[in-house]
Amino acid sequence: MTKQMQGGAAPSNAGAKNPVLEVKDLCVSYGKVEALTDASLTVGEGQIVTVIGPNGAGKTTMLSAIMGVLGSRGQVAFDGSVEGVPEVERMVARGMTLVPEKRELFGEMSVEDNLVLGAFQRYRMGKRDHAQTLEEVYALFPRLKERRDQHAGTMSGGERQMLAVGRALMAKPKLLMLDEPSLGLAPLIVREIFRIIGELRRRGVSILLVEQNARAALQVADYAYVLETGQIAMQGPAHELADDPRVIEAYLGLGGKHQAMLST
Amino acid sequence: MDMAIALILSQDGITNGAIYALLALALVLVFAVTRVIFIQQGEFVAYGALTLAMMQSGVLPATVWMLVVMGALVTVLDGGLALKAGQGRRAASVAGWNLGYPLALAAAVGGLAVNELPLAVQVLLTLAIVVPMGPMMYRLMYQPIASAPVLVLLIVSVALHIAMVGLGLLFFGAEGQRTPAFSEFSLELGPLMVSAQTLWVLMVSVLLIVALYQFFERTLYGKALRATAINRVGAQLMGISPTLAGKLTFFLAAFIGALSGVLIAPITTIYYDTGFLIGLKGFVAAIIGGLASYPLAAMGAIAVGLLESFASFWASAYKEVIVFTLIIPVLLWRSLCSHHVEEEE
């Protein structure tokens, strides 16, 4: 499984026209331990790109580094211009949002306040259209509208995930990065979340999706990377990787039937 | 003690309590958003009161030069960074706000006969001098170490407190000052004489608390500060930078401090070091609120004010001791039931 798929000429996400995000040789270390080594990836406009891999492979680290939450070395080019070291507020201002694994909601504030805060950076830059964006998000997640006055902390896991995604959409992102959106959710909710991810792509949002639920992720994505111990081990169009025996053995497995049922 | 004395003491207690409530709210706010324990809050009270007193005696308050110096340092740091990044317009705006504004203010205060201006203008000028020091102080002292442990931030606060007391002695001298009351009339309620200044204090405090409530509940910037207090990482991911939140918070805290000073200057004689005790009583109230709850802190502040005023009647030599001893049972009670708070996520 550790063998690299590519030989000399590395395959790349060539199908990506107008790359929104191009990451080159990104490295992150925690002290002396290198958590991410020379990771490169591309997300094209309107594409869903997924990064799968086992626990502790460095997936969350990679998203955090791209967003600027963590310091890193390497090159991140977003929406046509290169960032030396990304910085969070700047990345948000330029149209990148991250839905972190822990959701990081504002628990003691209402659902609506959480959502409106998602538009803070736009509001600050003088784009005060959050009332309209709010209606669009409510249309996508009617459940959030029902609970608009409820405290975010009192909602169920699935509702919180919807709120986290909704809040990120309030920023009208060019690139939405989702970290384990299905983690800890009931099967029906997982299916709902993946349906929404597909719907977002139809609306032209580019998505970088990190998932442990590899089958569901490969089904919805256009292109996929496999991350193992901090390195990109394999990559290719999602449907090809889904048929790759090594991926099947390591990530989809025989017991993966239930995942398939969840994702359709 | 008869009824009349009790009423007078209550009036005093509630008046002081209102000020402590304002300071306690500012302390809770600053701690929640930036994790800084704002020891130097009291110095902003003293600077506000004494800057106003100096203006009224026709002397150019030295605080305006402190503002110029702090602004110049901010200009060098932030302007330098902006220039390095090639953002000329940003550098110009930094210089305008942090250097141009203090110099213009110094020229205005120095050029006008400030002691002949109406009181309202003097109060506005005082606030214009003292309040911007808040965000500048955050920029210079806290922003570079914003993610340091609470203890380090506390030590910086203690250092700033000591520095500000020393500078206060230099600026204002060792003499105490008391400014004339805002208005002379007083209200007779049965046996109780309510002075106009008491009404001013209560009215401004209530108005300010209502305004702050509206700010935090209704405006996006207020919500952003609350969000930062609730979840720093989440707020940062929304593009609410800790720097912006910190500066805004220090602005509010400095405003509350300086305004409190202006309000109590006609009631108490203020010395360069009086602020510390006043701030500390606000701190006791904030602790009663667990440095987290605004309503509890406000109620605690009224309790502190009442306790102080009754203690000064019965055991005036021990009044500070009694007030500060209050913190011990509060801390005991807090630490015994604090695990309820920890359980949330």
From TrEMBL, chain A:
One of its GO terms (molecular function) is branched-chain amino acid transmembrane transporter activity. Signal peptide: none annotated. One of its GO terms (biological process) is L-amino acid transport. It holds the Pfam family ABC_tran. Residues 21-254 form the ABC transporter domain. Keywords: Amino-acid transport, ATP-binding, Cell membrane, Membrane, Nucleotide-binding, Transport. Belongs to the ABC transporter superfamily. This is ABC transporter. It comes from Thauera phenylacetica B4P.
From TrEMBL, chain B:
The keyword Transmembrane applies. One of its GO terms (molecular function) is transmembrane transporter activity. CDD domains: TM_PBP1_LivH_like. Its main location: membrane. Signal peptide: none annotated. GO terms for cellular component: plasma membrane. GO terms for biological process: amino acid transport. It is a multi-pass membrane protein. Coiled coil: none annotated. The chain crosses the membrane at residues 20-39, 59-83, 95-113, 119-138, 150-174, 194-216, 248-271, 283-306, 318-336. InterPro entries: ABC_transp_permease (IPR001851), BCAA_transport_permease (IPR052157). Pfam families: BPD_transp_2 (PF02653). It is found in: Cell membrane. This is Inner-membrane translocator. Belongs to the binding-protein-dependent transport system permease family. LivHM subfamily. Keywords: Amino-acid transport, Cell membrane, Membrane, Transmembrane, Transmembrane helix, Transport. The lineage of its organism: Bacteria, Pseudomonadati, Pseudomonadota, Betaproteobacteria, Rhodocyclales.
